[in-house]
Amino acid sequence: PAVAAAMRLGAVLSALRPALPLLLGLSLGCSLSLLRASWSHGAAEERCLAPGPPAPPARGAPPEAAEGRPGPGHEDFRPQIVPYYRDPNKPYKKVLRTRYIQTELGFHERLFVAVLTSKATLNTLAVAVNKTVAHHFPRLLYFTGLRSAKVPHGMVLVAHGDERPIWLMYETMNYIHQHFGSDYDWFYIMQDDTYAQAEQVKALVTHLSINQDVYLGRAEEFIGGDEQARYCHGGFGYLLSRSLLLKLHPHLDSCRNEILSVRPDEWLGRCIIDFLGITCVSQLQGQHYHTYELAKNTEPEKEEEEEFQAALAVHPVSDMTLMYRLHKQFSRIQLDRVYQEIQDLQMQIRNLTALTPAGEAGVTWPVGINAPFLPKSRFEVISWDYFTEQHLFSCPDGSPKCELSGASKADVSEIIESAVEQLNRLYQPLLRFSKRQLLNGYRRFDPTRGMEYTLDLLLEAATQKGHSHVLAKRVSLVRPLSKVEIIPMPYVTEATRVQLVLPLTVQDLDFVANFLDMFAMNTLDTHDNALLTLLFIYHPYDAQRVGQVDVFAGVKAMVGELEKRYAEVKIPWISVKTEVPSQVKLMDIVSKKHPVDTLFFLASVWTEINMEFLNRCRMNTISNWQVFFPVHFQEFNPTLVYRGEQTASSNTDFLRDGHFDRHSFAEACFYNSDYMTARTKLAADILDRDEVLESMEVFDVFLHYSGLHLFRAVEPGLVQKYTLRSCNPRLSEELYHRCVLSNLEGLASRSHLAMALFEQEQANST
């Protein structure tokens, strides 16, 4: 019995062994909590039973504070539980939240810039400001007192219709408050004869608190006024905070009627001082507003004073040429500062890397740039593209050799010049190199660091004594990825109605039923805001026999069944007779039958419509800004891919056996107004040569005849089953060739084709 009891005890212990740490932890935690509770209870009893009268409260402290409760000034720190209550008598209303968190949290844009100009300087100095610093500011507007002024290209002008300086300032402040007062934190006012360092001004506002009333600029004394009061000189620009603008706006009318002044900057300064009690300052929160006053006949290239190099604003600028020279000089100063900062950072990186376990071997080249990507398998190896000064041996169309031209040629030329320049910088004055020939060139794009180059250069090296020698030298260069820039885009919503346009030919009849079923299931059943228009393309022979035999009768019957099933849905169709179904000509017909604000989705019969893609179509298409050409995913031929095996049905592998068809431009999302604008420019270019339209697609119209962004991206929401497309030989050679390539590349991958050939050879050999 003792042995049996010991065995049972051992079995129990072995069963409890995995839970033993948990039990010990629970026991220890309970013990510590009980011990702490007893200590706290004992301390409270001792405090309550302490002899003697209670200590008097501190002098000036409220009674609540003496009892350990927060005083009247601390109500904000008291937690409050707000119970949820909904009146049952009132209908429930869904709370609509903003799409972007920035809007909901009340964030504002950083900086708004206003430039005051006049009739005499609108086409000179104002244009110079626009060409030098305007693109560095997030938002810049020009204000003038002219009536119906002709606006120079690329400028946004606000004309008030009164050239009196005080009136112009008054109207400008009113306009800024009305249109931008709730959108921006800072407002920078400058004249068109002022050169402002845009990057320095933007850096200044990032170091200032937006909670204070700020009136910052070059402080000047009023003539015959108070010695303590200052106004900001308008020639050097000045900065106003949003809080100050909001407080100033109610007093602008009083200032206009009560304050007399000749200079608009003095008038504004007096208005701010009289009604807000705020004077102009040249430094605030440790930030200085540096300015520099230009003398006559100044040579910006020879200015080496520290005051000039540190200036945020320079005034007065007398002509356009001086403005451009100032911009060039300040750009050179800023570039030198950046290069010096890069060198200092690289030195610090070298010094710190020497203290790491890897030592000096851990320093990457170039210093401060990410190390090259290390592939984990042969499938992740980034290949190098070979090039010479005339040809590229890795072409976009897949051909083995093509002429080096366009941006690629400019890129290669710049890299060679940079390589020779760097060599001369390293070896001068002992040697001076000049390029004779590029022997070999290699480049590849590394997503972790940028574009990498390896050049074999044939150089001529000349010494100080005049001797020269020809040698070959290999150099490596990196064009690193620069700072990521967020491009501002107009606000769009997912509530826009999408008008689907489906062109159909006789060859497409076998696929219409599946398209209509997917359309009904993914849009009509879900009540998505989408409509469908069918475009029946009749051959002239079929059009003559439409009274006896209508080739699209079956499709029209399917449409009738859908309209019976969904009573509120109407699916119209348009009949067209043509031998060459040009995409542009068909779109011309559809465009005339829809309003200008219609969002079109030009679909193909193999497209399977779903809500996910329709939302992306709405978000990626912006009126008067951007059109969207998705690249659909084309599944391979299942006969070649699976060869009798069961088709993969896993949802995670739905994009595995296929490819994104970059040769197809059949699907497109665009607004009718944008298409009509581009189509008008095309009509003026081709005149009456309608045969040109047969060689064009809608993509070509937007590419060559609109200034819109063309957004072309892979779209996993558009998946098309494999089918052999019929390529119309009547289309242009380029369109026909593109269709054939789409069919060939859509058969299968190289590995699948190789396996099919191998099995065929095995079968033939046996």
From TrEMBL:
Ligase keyword on record: no
A matching Pfam family: CHGN
Keywords recorded for this protein, A-Z: Glycoprotein, Golgi apparatus, Membrane, Signal-anchor, Transferase, Transmembrane, Transmembrane helix
Top-level taxon: Eukaryota
Annotated segments matching region Disordered: 48-80
Ribosomal protein is among the record's keywords: no
Cellular component annotations (GO), alphabetically ordered: Golgi cisterna membrane
InterPro entries named in the record: Chond_GalNAc (IPR008428), CS_glycosyltransferase (IPR051227)
Membrane topology summary: Single-pass type II membrane protein
Extent of Pro residues compositional bias: 51-60
GO MF annotation, one: glucuronosyl-N-acetylgalactosaminyl-proteoglycan 4-beta-N-acetylgalactosaminyltransferase activity
Location of the protein in the cell: Golgi apparatus, Golgi stack membrane
Enzyme class, spelled out: transferase
Enzyme Commission number(s): 2.4.1.-
Family affiliation: Belongs to the chondroitin N-acetylgalactosaminyltransferase family.
Protein name stated in the entry: Hexosyltransferase
Phylogenetic classification of the source organism: Eukaryota, Metazoa, Chordata, Craniata, Vertebrata
